[in-house]
Amino acid sequence: MGLVLDLGVLITAERNARPVSDLLATLEQEHGETEVVISSITVIELEHGLHRANTPDRARKRRAYPDTIFVDRLSRFNKIAGEMVPHLKIEEVLREVLGDGCCAVAGVPDERRGERLAVVYVSETVTAAEMIRHLEASGLPALWIPKRDHFRKVAAIPALGSGKVDLKGVRAIAMEQVKA
Predict the structure, then answer these.
(1) Residue 103 has pLDDT above 70, yes or no
(2) Domain range enclosing 101
(3) Which of 73, 104, 119 represents a domain boundary (last residue)?
(4) DSSP codes joined into one string, the chain
(5) Same domain, 134 and 48
(6) Widest CA span of the chain, in angstroms?
(7) Is 96 left (phi over 0), alpha (psi -120 to 50) or beta?
């Protein structure tokens, strides 16, 4: 389960010149490390605010603000070829073949599409090719399916002291894989 932010929370943060990272840190303190999402109507409303900006400075701030929402969060989403791709959905499908706690998805830079996906996983029996076949059979869009050489087998998924997935550690492993 995660949190869905209402537009009012974001507008108040913007008006108070509060960075999104501070807002997310407060939410994490209050609710623990959980997925935070913005309803699609909120994103549209934020974009609509660009047209109502009455000064160039206000327009610049409003143009940048939605990007900080998505970029600031060591995200469970990546923007690939202009489309927001949710890591949790891909992990959910992979858990069907790997089991709970056996994989994590991370985004890594890509020259052509901006970003691409990489999977860090634990399995003695399931191969990257089998995971790709399962992802394809699930009906996920092709854009959401990592390439075969973007799967990295590890002994254990990095974890924080709290036992939750260490997203920075997962991303570091994924970055090593795509450089190799």
Answers:
(1) yes
(2) 78-179
(3) 73
(4) --EEE-HHHHHHHHHTT--HHHHHHHHHHHH-S--EEE-HHHHHHHHHHHHT--SHHHHHHHHHHHHHHHHHS--SEEEETTEEEEHHHHHHHHHHHH-TTSEEEEEEEETTTEEEEEEEE--SS--HHHHHHHHHHTT--GGGSPPGGGEEE-SS--B-TTSSB-HHHHHHHHHHHHH-
(5) no
(6) 60
(7) alpha
Beta bridge partners of 109: 115
Is the confidence at residue 69, as pLDDT, over 70?
no
| CA angle at 39 for the pair 38 and 43, rounded to the nearest 5° | 75
Paired tokens of 110: 């890509």
pTM of the prediction?
0.59
pLDDT 10s digits, 26-60: 877 777 777 777 765 555 566 667 677 788 888 77
